[in-house]
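User: quick one, sequence for these tokens?
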């Protein structure tokens, strides 16, 4: 059997998660907003608003320092996608069985790697919890402060341009690496991208956005369809305009798929060609890029701002009036 993917490739599928949450009756509070699909919950304290989110990753790389950086980027992205300024983080770390000396060494590397990201984003690493389990898992709960209305999924409007700030295909490249099929240079480029801080990019894009999210385990199609559903819209993607990691499309053509791919595809009502590039719409992205719905007359300004922040952002599609199919392509 193929190895089980790590990172966001190890997530529970979207339909399974939605079904489990459908009958949940949590306490309703006026000072807590937690809409399905939003990247973070919104907490209110009088006129002040804070967002809070949590994420963890099953390790897919043997270097705990690098894995911690990727997990820290991944967790911070949820707060940044809400248009918030990150504030504090709590760590949740599960180490595999090892000697106490090795535990201390690994924890030192993990905390150093994560703190490098958090320092760059002005996030205080305020505490956490450790345990021992069967394999390395690293996660963080991150809070942020919102100075204006938070960016949720439900704000997109018909005609909005869809802007994506990072390439797709990391899940496919990493799945191929586990099978010994990926090129080393392609894997290195993915790891470098996944471990780079994103705060400057989020701050550049969010002022232009009507709605924004980060593309993670459910793939671009999954997260875009949730934005469309929340906004009462559909969307159209230009497949030729999608940014793709080197090697990903070739690997997809060979049938390489992440563990969660089939569940991601089944969860989206989409009319798409059966091509390798279209398959990457359902590829899970660990520490993926930001996806924003931006008024069309502001799209060029948003792209310029992202470029100044270091992102090769692209317009990849458009929000359209609601139809029976959530996602189509041209």
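Assistant:
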């Amino acid at each position: 059997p193929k190895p089980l993917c790590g990172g966001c490739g190890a997530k529970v599928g979207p339909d399974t998660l939605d079904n489990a949450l459908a009958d949940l009756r949590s306490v309703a509070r006026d000072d807590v907003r937690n809409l399905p699909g939003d990247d973070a919950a919104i907490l209110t304290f009088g006129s002040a608003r804070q967002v809070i989110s949590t994420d963890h990753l099953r390790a897919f790389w043997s270097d705990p320092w690098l894995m911690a950086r990727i997990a820290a980027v991944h967790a911070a992205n949820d707060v940044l996608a809400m248009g918030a300024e990150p504030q504090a983080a709590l760590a949740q770390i599960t180490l595999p069985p090892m000697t106490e000396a090795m535990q201390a060494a690994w924890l030192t590397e993990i905390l150093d790697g994560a703190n490098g990201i958090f320092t760059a984003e002005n996030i205080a690493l305020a505490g956490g919890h450790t345990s021992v389990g069967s394999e390395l898992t690293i996660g963080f709960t991150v809070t942020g402060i919102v100075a204006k209305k938070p960016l949720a999924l439900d704000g997109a409007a018909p005609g909005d341009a869809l802007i994506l700030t990072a390439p797709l295909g990391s899940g496919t490249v990493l799945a191929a690496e586990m099978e010994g099929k990926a090129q080393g240079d392609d894997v290195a480029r993915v790891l470098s991208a996944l471990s780079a801080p994103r705060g400057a990019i989020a701050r550049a894009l969010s002022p232009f956005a009507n709605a924004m999210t980060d593309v993670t385990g459910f793939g671009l199609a999954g997260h875009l369809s949730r934005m469309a559903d929340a906004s009462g819209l559909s969307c159209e993607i230009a497949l030729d305009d999608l940014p793709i990691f080197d090697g990903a499309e070739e690997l997809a053509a060979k049938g390489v798929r992440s563990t969660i791919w089939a569940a991601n595809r089944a969860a989206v009502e989409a009319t798409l060609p059966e091509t390798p590039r279209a398959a990457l719409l359902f590829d899970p992205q660990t520490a993926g890029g930001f996806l924003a719905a931006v008024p069309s007359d502001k799209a060029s300004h948003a792209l310029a701002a992202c470029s100044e922040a270091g992102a090769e952002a692209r317009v990849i599609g458009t929000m359209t009036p609601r139809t029976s199919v959530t996602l189509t392509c041209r």
